[in-house]
Amino acid sequence: PMRLSRFHLPLLKETPGDAQIASHRLMLRGGMIRQQAAGIYAWLPLGHRVLKKIEQIVREEQNRAGAVEMLMPTIQPATLWHESGRYDAYGPEMLRITDRHDREMLYGPTNEEMITAIIRSGIKSYKALPQMLYHIQWKFRDEVRPRFGVMRGREFLMKDTYSFDVDAAGARKSYLKMFAAYLRTFGRMGLKAIPMRADTGPIGGDLSHEFIVLAETGESEVFVHKDLMDMSLPPADLDFDGDLEPLFEQWTSKYAATDEMHTPEEFEAIPEGERMNARGIEVGHIFYFGTKYSEPMNAYVEGPDGKSFIEMGSYGVGVSRLMGALIAAYHDEEGCKWPMAVAPFHVGLVNIKSGDADCDTASERLYAALEAQGVEVLYDETGDRAGEKFARMDLIGLPYILTIGPRGLKDGQVEVKSRATGEKENIPLDSVADVIAARVKDALAIS
RNA sequence: CGGGGCGUAGCGCAGCCUGGUAGCGCAUCUGUUUUGGGAACAGAGGGUCGCAGGUUCGAAUCCUGCCGCCCCGACCA
C-alpha cells in the first residue's frame, strides 16, 4: 500500500526518442526503468515491484516442481571456466575483470561451472541424487547489440535451474519436471508460452525446448500448429513425481519451431487452416546436456558399478525479459494493462477532489479498508487535476481504478473501472472494499 | 563487427548549410482563476551546446581526434 505522493514515480508525457517498441516505451514513460548504459537499466520502484512479482511466481513454481533455491555470486573466478574449457570458448560476450591481485575474474553469464563445482564437492554417492537447484541472479552478457530496452539487455535477471541425475533416464525425468513447471509459470502470468524444439548442440536428442511467447515485436519467427494455442495448463496439484510423459507428449506432438529449427516440408504437411506463422519472444529455454560439464570438471558419484559422471540439465527463465514480454502482450495506446498476478499494485485509488473534506475522509477510509483486506493499493491523494490522475492511472495500468469524487459520494457510490476491459461500474462505498478484495483474490486464485 | 544516424534545459526538438549575446513546446516554481478524463492567464528559474584540440577578432555552427547513444544486418535468457 502506498501513497502516490511518497512513491517515486517519474512519468514521461513524451516518448524518449530511443524507445522503439511498446514495452520499452511504456517502461520508460511509466517510470519503471531508467537506462544507465547500453543494455543496462536501473529498476525504479514501480518496475521493481513488477519484477519481484514475476520473480515470485517463478520461485513458487520452481519450488512446486521440487527445485531448491540457493544463490550464487555474480562474480566468478576464471579458474572454474578454465576447467570446463569455456573461458576461451565463450568469447567477448563474457565480461572479464581483473582484481587488484591481477586474478582473472568474470561477471557470470551463466552458472554451469560453479554449480558443477559445488555439487562435485558436496556429493559422493549416487544415493544423494537426483538433485535440482536453482537461483535467481543477475547475469551479464556483453551483447554485440543490446536493444529493445529490457528485452535484450546486457545485464538481466535470470532464473537458472540445474539438475543432477545418476543416468539419462533420471535426467529425462528432471527435464520433464521443468517442462511442466515452465508451462505453469508462464501461464500463471497470463502468457501463452509455447514450447518449441530447439537446437540441442552436440548432445543431440529431443531434449531442448525454447518457450516462446507470441508477440508482434518478437525477435524470432515461429511456425506452430494452431491447436497449441488452446492447450490447457497443467493443474496446480500436478504430481511432479508422477509420470509426466503424457503431458510432454501432448505438448510436443504438434508442430512448433523457430525459424532456425523449421522444416518447411513438415510444416506444410499440416492442413493450411491449422498452420500459424507468427513472431515470438523467447522467455525460457531448457536443455539436457548430459556430462558436458561433469566430465571435464570431474563431477561424479560412486555407485554399485563404480563411478559415473553426473547427468546434467539446465533450465533458464529470463525474469527481466518477461516484464517486457508481459507489456508486449498487455497494453494499449494509453499504457500498460497488467494482469492481476504481476500488477505492481492491485488497484489504484483516485481521490478526485483531494482537499474536499468528504472526499478525503471517504478515500482514507477506503484506503485503510482495502489495505486491511490485503489489497495492494496505490492511493493518489495528490492535488492534481482529474484528467492527469486518470491518464496517469491508465499509463501505469493497474487492474482496477477506484474513483472517489463528490458526484458519486452524493449517492454513496465509488466508480470502479477495469483497466483490462475499460468498463466502469458504480459500487456502494460501504461494500466496495469487500467486493474488490474478493475480485482480487479470485483473479489471483486462477493459478 | 559492417552500414546508417544522433548528441543543444528533466523530456521532445529547432538553430549548424551561410560563424556574430542560447531558442521553442512540454515539464518545474510563484500568483490568480479554475477543477469529474492530460486547464487558462501572468510571471520566474533552469544550459560546461557530449569531451578535447585546432582555425578565427569571434565557434553550438567550420576542421581533427575521442567518447556516448540509437537504428538496420550478422549473433543470443
Descriptive account of the structure:
There is one protein chain. With 447 residues, this protein is an alpha+beta fold. Helices cover 32% and strands 28% of the residues. The chain is built from 13 helices and 24 strands. The longest helix is centred in the middle third of the chain and has 21 residues, at 168-188. The chain starts with a strand and ends with a helix. The model has no long low-confidence stretch (mean pLDDT 93).
List keywords for this structure.
alpha+beta; nine-stranded mixed sheet; 13 helices; globular; RNA-binding
The count of DSSP E runs of length 2 or more, i.e. the number of strands, is 24
Strand content: 25-35%
Structural class: alpha+beta
Q: Main beta sheet, described?
A: 9 strands, mixed
Low-confidence stretches: none
Q: Which geometry do the CA atoms define?
A: globular
Q: Determine the N-to-C terminus distance.
A: 23 Å
Tell me the radius of gyration: 24 Å
The pLDDT mean sits at: 93
Helix content percent band: 25-40%
Number of helices: 13
Annotate the secondary structure layout.
Layout: E1 2-3, H1 22-29, E2 33-37, E3 40-43, H2 45-64, E4 68-69, E5 75-77, H3 78-84, H4 86-89, E6 95-98, E7 104-107, H5 112-122, E8 131-140, E9 155-165, H6 168-188, E10 193-197, E11 208-214, E12 220-225, H7 245-252, E13 256-258, H8 264-268, E14 275-290, E15 300-303, E16 306-309, E17 311-318, H9 319-329, E18 331-332, E19 335-336, E20 347-351, H10 357-372, E21 377-380, H11 386-396, E22 400-404, H12 406-410, E23 413-418, E24 424-428, H13 429-445
Parallel strand pairs: 1-21, 4-8, 20-21, 20-22
Antiparallel strand pairs: 2-3, 5-7, 6-7, 8-9, 9-17, 10-11, 11-14, 12-13, 12-14, 14-17, 15-16, 18-19, 22-23, 23-24
Helix pairs in contact: 1-9, 2-6, 2-9, 10-13
The structure holds one RNA strand of 77 nucleotides.
